[in-house]
Amino acid sequence: MRTPTPEPAQAPPGRPLSLVQRMRDEEEDEPQFKPLSWGLIRRLFGYMRVHARKRNVLIALTVLRAAQLPGLVWLGSKIIAGPIANHQLELIWWGVGAYAVLAVLTDGFFHFRQRFALELGEAVVNRLRSEVFAHVQRMPMGFFHRMKLGRIIGRMTSDVETIRTAIQDVFFVSIVQIGQMAFAAVVMALTDWVLFLVVVGMAPVLWAINRHFRAKLSRNSRAAQESFTRVTATLAESVNGIRVTQGFVRQETNAGLFRGLLADHSKYNVALARTSAVLIPLLELNSQFFVSILLVLGGWQVLSGGTDVSVLIEFFLFANQFFAPLQVLGNQYNQALVAMASAERVFNLLDTKPEWEDAPDAVELADPRRRAAGGKAGVTSMSPGARVEFRGVSFAYDKGRPVLHDVSFVAEPGRTVALVGHTGSGKSSIINLAAKFYLPTEGEVLIDGQEIRALTSHSLHAQMGMVQQQNFLFSGTVLENIRLGRPEASDEEVRTAAAKLDCLDLLEALPDGFHTQVGEKGGGISAGQRQLVCFARALLADPRILILDEATSAIDALTEARLHRALAELVRGRTSFVVAHRLSTIRHADLVLVLDGGRVVERGTHASLVSQNGRYAELHRQFAQADERVR
Ligand SMILES: Nc1ncnc2c1ncn2[C@@H]1O[C@H](COP(=O)(O)OP(=O)(O)OP(=O)(O)O)[C@@H](O)[C@H]1O
Hints:
By secondary structure, this protein is α/β, with parallel strands linked by helices. It is built from 21 helices and twelve strands. Among the domains are: 333 residues, ABC transporter transmembrane region fold, CATH 1.20.1560.10; 73 residues, 3-Layer(aba) Sandwich (Rossmann fold), CATH 3.40.50.300. The site of adenosine-5'-triphosphate has 12 residues, from strand 1 and helix 12. Adenosine-5'-triphosphate binds next to strand 1 and helix 12.
């Protein structure tokens, strides 16, 4: 039977597959199986150490169960061979009574084994996920540039789930099964060693068939899982991009792509079902074939008087106990190999060292306001901005491809620096360096005279506020989103911040006022309102350095005027970097840096730059035209 191999996804003309194709590309170079590795197993077991008591009880229960199951069979066979074969009614009752007690105990232990294994697996998975999340959150921006989102999600979801299965099932189930097989083997060898050798001879054949098909099933199952991830990812992408889809009348094209992905998914599911449909009957046929051989051999021994029928029955029962675990163990072994590959990936992610970290002797960036307030937690109302200096800074995201060249400037405390330039000129890169999201390749960035490398990122970010162009809002209320700037702020302080920005009335006028829910990307409120929420968030945080990527989207003149007033209030007293898209902002900046190809080509105030009639004057004309169009 042919197993469909993943084919390259085809994007319909005019529509890049983007996320879907990227996910597929990423999936393909990851190995699905890895040999058992003692190091990985030990590390996984290390995660159970905090639950050592539960783990030990679980191991004890597992060993007990490994003895109980064959014990039940042994007792059953003894009842048949003894009291039943000899017509001893009273002994039959006693035997059955003992059997019932053992059965209840077996299943009682089974309940706890099952429960503890699930709880232990959950605890390990929970810890692994939090560790991965915390680790990823600590990584510098360069990491996210290299590590694709799909991979991080894959580690957290399918890889961790595979590890869960391994912890909950593979180890404990295998102990029970191996115990069952060993017990059965000993009893069979003692009962009839000739028949036992026949059974042992059959085992490798069953094992080989099982392994072959299980590996195939596993590959199909992974392909089905991945194709389903592509289906859900495409669905998410389509819903997110619905405006673009409808705006460009791409509904039919996208529906065609989606049908293709569904067909792909179905194909793997069918392959999975077909492999299963071959394996199960094949295993059954094999068992029946072996039973036939045993019947012939055993029957001949009984007829020739070499053995008793009750012994033959006992042997058959144990042969079954010996064969049944083979299938289960084959499956568990397969899962163990898949889990090894997953564990290796998850641990590789956890072991990824950031390409840079704060120096061990990095110091906190001092906040003069705290000094003025006598070191108390609360800050005074004064907001002296920080002094930010770039000295001969060059920078490359990727080695050998510099995007900033020898950038030098000083942003004096409380001043506003506007960064202007065409797209790709390096505005955001300057901001990324000022925020210590990246480190310069050459030169120095100084905050209050201290090299940024010598400062802790945490203390720097605590004194820095950011308003992004996308105005990202988390799911929750407007109030919660504003409070993100200072979680301990009271409702009144949030309202005061909004009032200071002169937007209290606008936010109160929302359907539920400050308690209006804003969904993913702040859906449900307008672009202007979103920006005001972000301004209020930044104001509440009361940063000394403010970074603002001005929204490019067109906003009506009235909102524009209010935003402008709010912005003027927000930047007051703070050292501000504004990626400026509006003339009104640039006009009020103390220093305008004109960027081109990663270099500062002109600098000065708006007025002085206009009079130079150079690059800025040209940009200014474009800005003025854009502003005109908005009005
Ligand atoms: N994460 C990244 N990895 C690699 N190159 C990047 C990355 N981010 C930006 N660049 C490149 O760096 C250069 C400067 O980009 P930057 O984002 O600083 O420009 P910008 O002036 O802010 O542009 P825009 O106005 O479009 O936001 C561009 O050539 C861009 O392609």
